[in-house]
Design goal:
The complex is a heterodimer of chains A (about 270) and B (about 325).
Chain A (H helix, E strand, L loop, with lengths): L10 H23 L8 H27 L5 H6 L19 H22 L5 H28 L4 H19 L8 H6 L6 H18 L6 E4 L2 E4 L14 H11 L11
Antiparallel strand pairs in A: 1-2
Chain B lengths: L5 H13 L12 H20 L1 H5 L8 H26 L5 H9 L17 H21 L5 H29 L3 H20 L9 H8 L7 H18 L11 E2 L4 E2 L6 H11 L3 H14 L1 H19 L1
The chains are: A mainly alpha (about 270), B mainly alpha (about 325).
Bound molecules: fe (ii) ion (3 copies).
């Protein structure tokens, strides 16, 4: 173990937190890469390939931290682990859908990542602070891109509006699942390691609802004075390993070659 | 001042080319030169984007973080090459939309090599190593092209392609050092890709109508045979050094000429594959058409938004 965290933070819970971020990034990056060679225009083919590489790169950063905390290597985590042992949210596992769904998912996730990383800038754990600083630089580009697409596609033509609205309606409750409470999370919050999913969720709502609104897209929420009341229930279960079949298929695909000779190099 | 005659302009144009000057978009050029270039550059652009598909198929299955990341990056590079080349062709007065339509209706051609299947992971390494080596030899030659925008695009593309070759070779070496099954995947892939790769540089020039003009006006600076020979001389020792063989018992080094001898590929097969009847032509075009159709609303929406922004800016 080459990385140590303050002794009052329970290691097991801390590792679970790191893993949830790693798995989100890997699975979403994998989904994004499904557009490589198939996007609506070359410019977006290139952009989504870039985002895919960044997200998978972020996963690698988190898996490396996981290894330094005493876990298996990143390749073993990504390419040999059972799908049931992944701790990503359901949201990132859904099929790529049409381009509207991809854009909306990417935007909603990018904001979640942004608030998550921003929160980690004041973490009591040094390692989390320095990773957050590093990843935030790339994330601001994603956000610029995905938010720009939301703003342009939201009300450009009747068809683009209809598709984007459908995507928001579908993706919104799924996205809320990003903030599913982790087992042992309260220990981490108490120790100042991170601010907790409830706080992140409210930061996220404050950011995404007005942006969607400005793009003529309706989120399933009610605005009550300072508060945003959510009218749908979140798609949860991923953080506890209760996954949908989509993840099984994705993991099968991802591990297909590696598992042919797991002891060998590729 | 009287208009210069066509003959006078042509003589001036050819003199410039012979002095090694580059022809630029606004310059006078014979119609045939323009047509030849548009055909070549757009075919080349199409090859880049259709060329995303055979390897792209393996992105979801790439084994390990390093391979997954480099494969996405590589296939992304090909999209970037397509973008660059469509832009170079646009300088000659044809729009990307027109070229795309010609690709999707089957009117335009693209490299034969992307119409072959990629049934195993080893194909990714072999394409990066063999196919990209053949491409770089051809493109290094085209970087000397007399048309400025094409030559400059080629220069940048060659630079990126040289990384693809390194990555392809690296991935082949990993398998070559692996289990007997992994080695067998490589050998099998070399056998399948050998002749399609040899065909990439085109039929012998005597057979090629386009080649004659392209050589005269230095759109290309080497014959198809020269390019192919360079590839064979370069790659055969590398393949054998890793303990693999090429599917050609007559492929031997000839002391007298200083070159490797090799059996000519089946030119009839090339003709069929280029004209639409290869193992994967239908599949490749179907994939491009699907992406194009499903992406139509996005392109329309972005165009509308762009137009609105311009109106706001102008007001
Ligand atoms: Fe990320
Ligand atoms: Fe992102
Ligand atoms: Fe390329």
């Amino acid at each position: 173990m080459s990385l140590t965290i303050p002794s009052h933070i329970p290691l097991e819970h801390f590792k679970r937190f790191v893993l949830s971020m790693a798995d989100d990034e890997l699975v979403l990056g994998h989904r994004d890469s499904e557009w490589t060679g198939h996007a609506p225009i070359l410019e977006e083919d290139i952009a989504f390939s870039n985002i895919a590489q960044d997200e998978i790169g972020h996963a690698l950063v988190w898996y490396t931290m996981y290894m330094e905390l005493g876990g298996p290597s990143p390749d073993e985590m990504g390419f040999l682990r059972e799908w049931k042992d992944f701790r990503c949210c359901h949201f990132v596992t859904y099929p790529r859908g049409d381009f509207a769904y991809t854009v909306v998912r990417q935007y909603l996730f990018d904001v979640a990542e942004q608030v998550r990383l921003q929160g980690l800038l004041s973490s009591s754990v040094d390692a989390l602070r320095s990773v957050a600083e590093k990843l935030l630089r790339e994330e601001s580009y994603h956000l610029l891109h995905s938010q720009g697409l939301v703003e342009r596609l939201g009300d450009a033509t009747p068809e683009s509006h209809e598709r984007m609205q459908r995507a928001v309606t579908e993706a919104f409750p799924q996205a809320l699942g990003i903030f599913e409470e982790l087992e042992g999370e309260s220990f981490l919050v108490e120790a100042g390691a991170f601010v907790g999913n409830a706080a992140l969720r409210s930061d996220w709502l404050k950011e995404v609802v007005p942006v969607l609104h400005k793009a003529s897209l309706q989120a399933p929420v009610q605005l009550e004075a300072e508060n945003v009341k959510v009218l749908v229930s979140p798609h949860e279960g991923g953080r506890r390993g209760q996954h949908l079949e989509y993840l099984k298929q994705l993991v099968d695909d991802m591990q297909q070659v590696y598992r042919l000779a797991p002891q060998s190099q590729w | 001042m009287p208009e210069k005659s066509y003959e006078a302009r042509l003589a001036e144009f050819e003199a410039r080319i012979n002095r090694g000057e580059k022809i630029e978009p606004g310059d006078w050029m014979p119609d045939e030169y323009r047509k030849n270039l548009i055909r070549m550059i757009s075919q080349h652009a199409h090859s880049e984007i259709v060329g995303q598909l055979p390897e792209g198929k393996w992105i979801p299955h790439a084994p390990g973080f390093r391979r997954k990341l480099t494969l996405i990056a590589k296939v992304q590079d090909e999209a970037g090459h397509g973008q660059l080349l469509y832009r170079a062709a646009e300088t000659l007065g044809k729009s990307r939309e027109e070229m795309m339509d010609e690709l999707l209706t089957g009117k335009a051609k693209y490299s034969n090599v992307f119409n072959y299947p990629t049934p195993t992971w080893a194909d990714v390494g072999i394409i990066g190593w063999l196919v990209d080596t053949a491409a770089v030899i051809n493109q290094t030659m085209l970087a000397q092209s007399s048309y400025g925008p094409y030559a400059r695009a080629m220069k940048r593309i060659c630079y990126e392609e040289s990384f693809h070759i390194k990555q392809g070779y690296d991935s082949v070496v990993a398998l070559a050092k692996g289990t007997p099954e992994q080695r067998a995947l490589i050998q099998d892939a070399i056998h399948r890709w050998w002749y399609p790769t040899l065909m990439m540089s085109g039929p012998p020039d005597a057979l090629s109508v386009h080649s004659q003009l392209a050589l005269r006006w230095k759109i290309k600076t080497k014959s198809n045979e020269q390019v192919r020979q360079e590839f064979v001389d370069h790659i055969v020792p590398q393949i054998r050094a890793l303990g693999f063989d090429v599917p050609d018992p007559d492929c031997v080094y000839d002391e007298r000429t200083g070159h490797y001898r090799y059996t000519q590929p089946d030119w009839e097969e090339l003709r069929r594959v280029v004209n639409g009847d290869g193992p994967c032509n239908a599949e490749r075009l179907a994939a491009r058409r699907k992406a194009h159709e499903e992406g139509r609303w996005v392109r329309e929406a972005l165009a509308v938004k762009y137009q609105k922004q311009r109106e706001v800016a102008a007001a």
